[in-house]
Amino acid sequence: ERGRDLEGIIKQWDTFVKPNSERFVKPSMLSADIIIPRGSDNLVAMSTIITHIRKQLKTKSAEHVQHLIRLGQKFKAIDYNRVHILPKTNQLEGMCAILLNKQSSRDEFIFYFDRVALILINEALELIQYSPITEKEIITPGGYIFKKAMKQSEEVVAVNMIRSGDCFMSSLRKTIPEVKVGKLLIQQDSQTGEPQLHTEKLPPLAKGNNVLLFDAQTISGAASIMAIKIMLDHGINEEDIILVTYLSTEIGVRRILNAFSKVNIVIGKMGSSNDTDTDIRKNEIGYCSDNDWWMSTRFIDAIYFGTD
User: How far is 224 from 244, CA to CA, in rounded Å?
Assistant: First the structure.
């Protein structure tokens, strides 16, 4: 793969790989709780560890919620006046199947995600305030005067969460060609797990602007909460912020609305965090759990931009 000959490979093995393995790797194995033979190729062991980690995270999450309750904070029920989930249709479920299919080509993935993105953007634009046109009349091609015309009350500004939100740009430009676009790079700190703002490049924002905040996937909700806080710091009204996302966990939505109850969220497909869901519901077409791989792992931007 790297264009080396056999002699060079053996030399590197004898000079660097084997000595450093014996010096650093083997001693550290004495401190390991578990050693997995064959590494990631050992699917049974990897599945066992993943199940254990998810169980521990679930326990930690439950303890965290109980701690908040003891402090007097309660998770409110989801306000579905603020959460707008695309209705389940055969067309959307069919496109979802293509997006989740490993056998789908990248061209297919981009084409169908762009279709879903258009539907999400149109749903979000339905939440924008419109008002009657009063300053001038609309003359139709036939020469008639149309007096009942409408227009957007305020300018729409798009803000992308790099790079997940960039997946919406092609569809957005087809919908609102002249839209101003800003970008935020928010990444999780590897030590603390807290979101950190690395890049902020925003167009001029004014009170009353409608902001479409794009993120292809919402998992924990932490990055979205930080992005919304940044919008508020720039003078945007909370009720004028619309988060647009394709896949979102239920717990992520709950966290966002607990922090900012007036924000609108437009979702393509939302998971369920309720372990008491009946087997009948779990077997429904399109049912998703927050713990499902596609709900808890970022993959859309990697496939969309070919970096997977």
Answer: 10
